[in-house]
Design a protein that fits this description.
By secondary structure, this protein is of the alpha/beta class. The chain has nine helices and ten strands.
């Protein structure tokens, strides 16, 4: 009986995401099943919806309900200088390579609310090459992108972010980069000067430029293998020869068709360089 219920729930979840794709065009059909089911259940609890069928009816007839579900599905845990050792490795290994380019295009794919985008802008500014960079920060979620554009974060998080910034090799006082006001930290406008925030769906959209660096950290773990392969193909086609790919700590190129097409620069921090 338990397996039958599980199978029925799986069918209902699939019907839910088939409906969302066919009506709205958002494609979550190949997201990792366990993560997707867990987020759906959490959303149902918060909305006090008892069945997946009722959830399907609600999101297909009420756009605000869909927007709240999308936010639940797509916003990942993030913070300034998350995994400081990654940013330290980027500073020490990747920056010397980037200095040789007259202009640098960087794609932050799945940027969420922007904390890691601002972290990268700070790092590039400290290394004296931000003026030669253009950062394209993309996400599927419009509300998350708007928060990223605003550059306003909780002041209570700044102590933690300061510690992570220092561990990442920060060279100044972290408070130099923001203004405190009404329990919020507002990041300096000059950090946003070379950032373009835009909606882009890794599942359905194509490449839109050629990049020297692509960062997609802690996003692919939510996709199934077929979708991961599709996104890796997108990244490979979007990277210039010898371009840098950065993945999350739990992600890897191992067991993918692209494993032999990259040179590992840091296995622990998942930094790879595309071949010629």
């Amino acid at each position: 009986m338990l397996s039958q219920l599980s199978t029925l729930e799986d069918i209902e979840v699939q019907l839910l995401f088939d409906g969302i794709y066919r009506y709205y065009g958002y494609d979550f059909r190949n997201y990792a099943a366990s993560s997707r089911r867990r987020r759906v259940q959490k959303f149902m609890h918060s909305e006090r919806i008892e069945t997946i069928s009722a959830l399907q009816e609600k999101v297909l007839h009420d756009r605000p309900s869909l927007d709240r579900l999308l936010l639940s599905l797509t916003v990942n845990v993030t913070s300034m200088f998350r995994d400081p050792s990654f940013f330290l490795a980027f500073r020490n290994i990747v920056l010397p390579m980037l200095r040789t380019y007259p202009f640098i295009r960087i794609w932050h794919a799945g940027c969420s609310t922007g904390e890691e985008v601002y972290s990268m802008a700070i790092l590039l500014q400290e290394e004296g090459i931000y003026h030669r960079c253009r950062i394209y920060a993309t996400d599927t979620n419009e509300k998350a992108l708007q928060a990223a554009k605003n550059g306003i974060f909780s002041l209570s998080a700044m102590q933690e972010y300061t510690q992570q910034y220092l561990k990442a090799g920060g060279k100044k006082s972290f408070s130099d980069y923001y203004t405190a006001a009404y329990e919020h930290a507002i990041f300096r406008a000059n950090l946003r000067e070379n950032i373009i925030f835009s909606q882009h769906n890794l599942v359905t959209d194509r490449s839109f430029n050629e990049f020297n660096v692509i960062l997609c950290r802690n996003v692919l773990i939510y996709f199934d293998r077929a979708l991961q392969d599709r996104v890796h193909d997108l990244f490979y086609q979007s990277l210039c020869p010898f371009g840098i790919l950065a993945l999350g700590r739990q992600e890897s190129l191992r067991f993918t068709a692209f494993h032999d097409l990259y040179e590992p620069l840091s296995s622990s921090e998942k930094l790879y360089r595309r071949g010629n």
